[in-house]
Write a structure and sequence with these properties.
about 35% strand; 3 helices; about 180 residues
Length: about 180
C-alpha cells in the first residue's frame, strides 16, 4: 500500500531549497524549452496512486520560463535540454519566484521519454561531490537533508549532469496530469 503523498510537495520544496545540486543561475529563460504542457499536475511517488499528492500548476511565462504554483512557495523553472543525443532528458533550473535572476538555483533532472514526467534530484556523493569541490564550489551536510553540492562553474555541473542521465535510477517523483 502506498503511503500518503501529502508530504511530497513540502519535501520537494525543502529539497529544492537545500538544493542537492545547486549553483549560480546559469540559464536564462531564452534557453528554456516547452518540455511539459501548461496544466495542473499532482506530484506523486513514481508508480504511486495518481490521485495522491498536492496539485501544482505549471504555466509557461512570456519570457519562456515556467511558473510553478501550489500550496507553498511559487517557483520559476527554466527547462533546458541536456543533450541532443538524449532526447526527452532535461535539466531543470529552479528558483523561488521572488528570487532575483542572479540568485543561486537548485537543479533537478526531468525525464519525459516515456510520455510521463519523472523527476530526480541527483545525489551529492562520489564523483559529484568531488567535482563540486574541485570546481571551487563546496559541499554542505545536513543531518535532515543529506549532502548538498554547490557547483561553482557551469561546465562542471553539465559534466556531472551528463553522467547522471546515463543512470536510469533515481527518478522517484512524477508529475501526473490532474483531472479537472
Amino acid at each position: 500500500m502506498w503511503r500518503s503523498a501529502s508530504w511530497l510537495v513540502p519535501a520537494f520544496a525543502a529539497l529544492l531549497l537545500s538544493g542537492c545540486w545547486s549553483g549560480p543561475a546559469w540559464f536564462t529563460a531564452s534557453d528554456g524549452v516547452a518540455a511539459i504542457p501548461d496544466g495542473r499536475y499532482r506530484l506523486v511517488e513514481t508508480g504511486g496512486p495518481p490521485n495522491s499528492g498536492d496539485i501544482l500548476t505549471l504555466t509557461r511565462q512570456a519570457d519562456n520560463s515556467v511558473r510553478i504554483t501550489g500550496p507553498d512557495t511559487p517557483w520559476r523553472a527554466i527547462i533546458v535540454p541536456i543533450d541532443a543525443a538524449q532526447p526527452g532528458r532535461f535539466l531543470v533550473q529552479l528558483q523561488e519566484a521572488s528570487a532575483l535572476p542572479a540568485a543561486s538555483a537548485g537543479f533537478v533532472l526531468l525525464d519525459a521519454r516515456s510520455g510521463n514526467w519523472r523527476v530526480s534530484s541527483p545525489r551529492c556523493d562520489g564523483d559529484a561531490k568531488d567535482a563540486a569541490e574541485r570546481s571551487g564550489g563546496h559541499v554542505t551536510r545536513d543531518p535532515q537533508t543529506g549532502a548538498s553540492c554547490f557547483f561553482a562553474d557551469r561546465a562542471t555541473l553539465l559534466k556531472q549532469v551528463h553522467g547522471a542521465v546515463k543512470e536510469e535510477g533515481g527518478f522517484d517523483l512524477e508529475l501526473v496530469k490532474a483531472g479537472d
